[in-house]
Structures are given as structure tokens and as C-alpha cells.
Design goal:
Number of helices: 9
CATH class: Alpha Beta
Distance between the termini: 43 Å
Strand order of the largest sheet: 3-2-1-4-5-7-12
Bound molecules: NADP nicotinamide-adenine-dinucleotide phosphate
CATH architecture: 3-Layer(aba) Sandwich
Shape: globular
Number of domains: 1
CATH superfamily: NAD(P)-binding Rossmann-like Domain
Number of strands: 15
CATH topology: Rossmann fold
Oligomer: single chain
Amino acid sequence: MQQATILIVGCGDVGSTLGQMLLNQGHKVFGLRRNINQLPQGIQGISADLTNLENLKAALAEIDDCHILVYTAAASSHDEEGYEAAYVAGVQNTLNALPSKPKHLFFTSSSGVYHQNDSDWVDETSPCEPKSFSGKIMLKGEQQVLSADLPSTVVRFSGIYGPDRGYLINRVRGGDIAPAEPLHFSNRIHRDDCAGVLNFLIAKVLNGEAIDPCYLASDSNPVTMHEITTWIAKETKSQITSETVSRRAGSKRCSNKRIIEAGYRFKYPSYVDGYSELIDLDQESGDK
Ligand SMILES: NC(=O)c1ccc[n+]([C@@H]2O[C@H](COP(=O)([O-])OP(=O)(O)OC[C@H]3O[C@@H](n4cnc5c(N)ncnc54)[C@H](OP(=O)(O)O)[C@@H]3O)[C@@H](O)[C@H]2O)c1
């Protein structure tokens, strides 16, 4: 495979993990974010603000041979302004600021673009009619990317978990689980698989293989919130003191058939694989 120049814009948790994978394969990796102090060694940091076109132009002036642009920025605030800035204007600003067009653009989106709430399966062909402002703006970002004048691919992640993303474990350790009723299916993907899926698709593009315009990236085991929280309670020996209905997203099951059929193998196909490791790590650090 050729050595490529890859720019990761919004190089945070997923972007940095991806960057390390790409570095290990001998690619040249740039990571753009406002605060570049935390970037892993080897990723060449570019400090710039996506909301400021002039700042971006100056920062990206030297990147004139970008093969792959991976856009993984996340909104800084959970409101319309923050979402528009991160998922719509930021992408446009990046494309306008780069001295030349990349050969392929990847945009990380979310399963939040689906409106379905009947616990049925959804995939890349399912209709998306989100009611929330976040889903609507994310979908607008996807459409902008897919209609841009360059080959592009949207990767929709479900709920990301992993090291330093211990929300669910902390909730259960605090004694709270989700009730069995109402039925609420949830979907998740480990941070390493988010990066793994992107790495896998980038390799295909660099090898000249065709890929689809959209992939839904979620592990192979959608489960109810009740099942996963009950399982974590058992594994962490937490005493259950409350049951809270949390319906941050509609109840649906995300199918990963397309990315599996493309050949990707999940490192953490089920929550059991990923959360077992996180709970073990927690226990190890607690023992120190
Ligand atoms: N969290 C989830 O469960 C979930 C689910 C589905 C999809 N996603 C999507 O998955 C992608 C990757 O997520 P992640 O967890 O890796 O996010 P993350 O760790 O928060 O990284 C995003 C990065 O974007 C940078 N950024 C934000 N605003 C910026 C700006 N104005 N200018 C320059 N950089 C900016 C931030 O760095 P600085 O603050 O240093 O600028 C941050 O490091 C995101 O697109 C996210 O929306 C997340």
C-alpha cells in the first residue's frame, strides 16, 4: 500500500486512536484541533479553530497533498449553534481552506439520524427523519458531505464507549440500572472499533477498492438497556438501589451487516467483550 498523507480534523478520542493505527502502517498523519497538547506522539499537530476560516487557511496552507481527509470533530456545545459549527460549517470551512482537494473524505456521523423507535432493525437503507435538532443537523452534515465535489463516505457510529468513557459503569456502580419496561434497545461501539472501521475503509480506498457512501458502525449485539445495566451490576458487584428510564435515543437495533460483509471484524463484537475489559481495568486501577 502507498504511503499516504492523512489529515484527521477534530482529532480527539477516535481520531487519535485512528492516527496511531495509521502511523503504524507508515502513513503521514496530521491531527487538527484547537488544543494539540494531548495528541499522541507521531501525529503532527495543527492547532486551528474550525469556526474561523482565515485561521484554518493559514494552518492548512502547507497541506497540499492530502490523500484522505477524516472529519471527526464533535460539537463543543449541545445546542443548534454548536452542532451547525461542528457538523456543517466546520466541514465546509475545512474543504475551503485546504489548498487542494483530498482524494477521499470520511465524515463521522451518528445513529442519532434515525427516528425509528419500534425496537426494529435499522441499516443504511432505512429512512432517516430525525425529530431532534441534533439528528437533523447531523443529517444535514451528511448530505453536505455526500453532495460535495469529491468521493466521500459517511460512517454512522452508535454510542461510543471505551477507556475514559465510563458513564454507564459509573451509573451502575452508583446503584442505578434501567428497568425492564418500557423495552429500550440500545446500540454501542467500542472506541477502538470506531477507529478500526475507519482504518479498514481507508485501506480499501488507498488500495483502489470501491466502498459505499454510507456505513452504520455498531457492534453485533444490540441489547436492552436493562440487560446491559443488569450485567454490569453483576460484574461490578454493585447493589441496585434505583431503576431509571433513560431514553436518550429511540429504541432500535443497528445492523452492522454492511461493514461485516465488506470484511471488517470487530475487536469487541459485544458489550460483554468491551465492558469486561473496562471493568477489569477499573478494578486493577482501584487496587493500586
Ligand atoms: N459520543 C458518542 O457516543 C458518539 C456517537 C456517534 C457519533 N459520534 C461522533 O464521533 C466522532 C468522534 O467522536 P470522539 O469521541 O472522538 O470526539 P472527541 O473526542 O470529542 O473529539 C472531537 C474533537 O473535535 C475537536 N474540535 C471540536 N470543536 C473544534 C473546533 N471548533 N475547532 C477544531 N477542533 C474542534 C476537539 O478538540 P479541541 O477541543 O482541542 O478543539 C475534540 O478533540 C464525532 O464526530 C462525534 O460526533 C459520537
